[in-house]
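Entry 14. Ran structure prediction on the chain below.
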Amino acid sequence: MGRQLSTRMCFVCGFKNPIGLRLIFEDDGVRAWARFSPRPEHQGFPGTLHGGIISALLDEVMVRSSLAMNPRLWTLTARTEVRYLKPVPIGMELTVVGEATEVRRRVVKSRGELRLADGELAAESTGTYIAMPEEMRQAMESEMREWRVLEE
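Output, structure tokens:
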């Protein structure tokens, strides 16, 4: 519970990625969330957040929802679906929230939401995630000494 670890080079959470989004994720043991204020370099059409970045935000928060329940349950995306409900303006604080809806031994199903500053739902997603293979998880965890819990 609390702040989750951030990697060095992940596009969404990497604290040393010069082109990354640098989100800080938190959880309450059930849900995971982060806040993000898109900048002009994140736009697709003028003044509007690029849909690929919306998808990346939702995918990441759904993976993070697995970690909210079990900090060792690292998962990989098997399938994700995004519904874009309205254009998302740049320059305002957004909130992305994810929650696991079904957990089986090696498969997690999750849902995610992207909300505007006023709480309006702008995009929603569902995803299926598979447990990371053990050898991949071990290799990743050996690099975790470089991971950080970041302050805003």
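The first strand starts at residue 2 and ends at 3. Will compare against last week's run tomorrow.
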